[in-house]
Amino acid sequence: MSKTINIISWNVNGLRACHRKGCFKEIMNTAPDILCLQETKSLPEQLPEEVRKPEGYYSFFDYSKGRKGYSGVAIYSKEKPESVKEGMESKEFDQEGRLIAAYYKDFVLLNVYFPNGGGGAIRLKYKLEFYEVFLKFIEKLRKKYKNIIFCGDINTAHKETDLARPKENAKNTGFLPEERAWIDKVVGKNYIDVFRHYFPNLKDAYTYWDMKTFARERNVGWRIDYFFVSKELIPNLVLNEILSKIYGSDHCPISLKFKI
To answer: I need a surface site. Which of 70, 129, 174, 177 has the fewest CB within 10 A?
Structure first.
């Protein structure tokens, strides 16, 4: 008998702050089977017990090894994965705590906080190189595991329908041709953007809004948070949603339901 798995992915822009505002409790109250968080900005020992080890969940963390209060990802899972690994076997790109891979019986889930290309040419170069190393990493995984899911903040809007003001942002990081070309490459490798699988032409559907300009109230946003699945998982898909009514971050959560 098949069962439905519900995964929620969310860039919380600081897990400790999210907890203080009550949004960690709110998202846990939705009882996801797996919760993937990005930009946690904390070491595990800095988290209160109810966040580090919430009842009914196994928890796993990757964090920045140098700069404190920066980057970081977490996975909370009702079912214990068969194994969990941090990073993508790259000394250069694993220092910022951006990836956790959870290996389950029927699929591999990668929770990733991809770099932002802002801050000048050096960080943009880092972002693009991270992209390439990541794609090689999952392609290597795919030789062994058929069902691959990766989710998180990719920090790039793919098409013009994925942001409110494409023309104004054509020369800004997050919508540069070379950044978007990498997502084209991912799609070309038969990884499916689940949201666009369901809603190929839907506009005004975003996952990130600039807080300084109160962009969320006007829905001047970007869709930069994704679920991608390997092509083989398409028949298993049930639902993909943007949970835009949940607040607490400059991003909102997204969810994926599929059957195994």
So the answer is: 177
Helix (H, G, I), strand (E, B) or coil at 176: coil
* 40: three-class secondary structure by DSSP: coil
What's the length of the chain? 260
CA-based torsion, 103, 107, 108, 112: positive or negative: negative
Residue 105 CB coordination number (10 Å): 8
pLDDT tens profile 34-83? 999 999 999 999 999 999 999 999 999 999 998 888 999 999 999 999 99
Write down the domain spans for the chain.
7-259
pLDDT of residue 78: 98
Question: Distances in Å between the alpha carbon of 130 and those of 32, 123, 133, 166?
Answer: 29, 10, 5, 24
Q: Where are the alpha helices (DSSP H) in the chain?
A: 15-21, 23-28, 49-52, 121-142, 177-188, 194-198, 215-218
Q: Please give the CATH number for the structural domain made up of 7-259.
A: 3.60.10.10
For 170, phi then psi, to 5°, come to -60, -25
Residue pLDDT, tens place only, 236-257: 999 999 999 999 999 999 999 9
**Does the annotation count 162 as an active-site position?**
no
Q: Residue 202 carries which side chain, given as an amino acid letter?
A: L
DSSP-assigned states of every residue in 179-235: HHHHHHHHHHTTEEEHHHHH-TT--S--SEE-TTTTHHHHT-EE--EEEEEEGGGGG
Q: Which two tokens stand for residue 125?
A: 């170069």
CA 173/CA 148 separation, integer angstroms: 27
The tens digit of pLDDT for each residue in 173-209 reads 999 999 999 999 999 999 999 999 999 999 999 999 9
**Quick check: 34 and 7 in contact, CB under 8 A?**
yes
